[in-house]
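Supplementary notes for students who missed Thursday's class. We covered one full example, reproduced here. Read the sequence, then the structure, then the short commentary at the end.
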Amino acid sequence: MRAAVVRDFNEDLSIETVEDPSCPDNGVVLEVAACGVCRSDFHGWVGGHPKVTNGSILGHEYCGTVVEAGAQAKYRIGDKLIAPFILGCGDCPACRTGHSNTCESAIVPGFGAPGAYAEFVAVPFDHNLVHLPETMSEALAAGLGCRVTTAWHALTDRANVRAGEWVAVHGTGGIGLSALLLAKMLGARVIVVDVVQEKLDHALTLGADAAVNAATQDVPDAICEITKGGAQVSLEALGIAQTTNASVECLATLGRHVHVGMPAGDGMMEVNMRAIYSKQLAFYGTRGMPAWKYPSLLEMIERGDVDLTPMLDREVTLSGASAELRAMKGPTRPGTAVITDFSK
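Structure (token representation):
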């Protein structure tokens, strides 16, 4: 099969012919229909993730059709499925209590296992997968596996966002746009933060109540002024110290910070603990979403409760993924990119 392979960090992915994946007994092999290009992939591409090495195949936001099924698989050949990026084992205490996104035995394609920047991908623990709704495009569905589900879990299960609250979203990439659209659906008032004015303007057209340009404004001061005292909830969607501290410092007393962005490198950073202490803030980490929540989220999207199509900006080829990753070294354009052509 054709795959985009990491050979040297910060260099274009190598388009190679590699062996087709073996089918796991407890899972399936998917012919990949679409795979998102995510900032988490970028962290691996630049050498910032310990499980991405020479020979790795990135890609954890994907959907596709079953072409091979293992003896213990739940799904069968021909099923069109969406996959969460965290594949919980299903048997450990975390999985049995509904927290499969914290499973210590989880497999994450693209990070320690071959991912979906390829024509085919092996998916063990296929009980995590769900059927692709007929009304949903494959390109849009690919982004559900990470960005949308992560944002939904962060807003609901971690932050418990309530109607009327102010929610600050730091970073308007895939997760940031998802958080904006979903928070508005929940009845919240949303402030978006970025350094690219074009992305802020785009977010305003999607319903953001206010926008703050971190390149020209003091973010915490601006948000405290807009909200008349600080946001109740703040989501950090980049994983760097600057946005983490801005997120903490923009909160009102008893506010909730939710850390969504995957920290780069060794993950160590200095955080304003005085702000956390003095304002008695809650600081939540979050990663992914339990697989059992997928059906209700998909039903909500199918009903038209929220329109997520604005987050998809462009479809690219497999060889075009390198340019998307390289662009993440600087300011990026609005919307997200999805690989839909694996022949080029």
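Commentary. The longest strand covers residues 28-37. The mean pLDDT is 95. If anything here is unclear, bring it to office hours.
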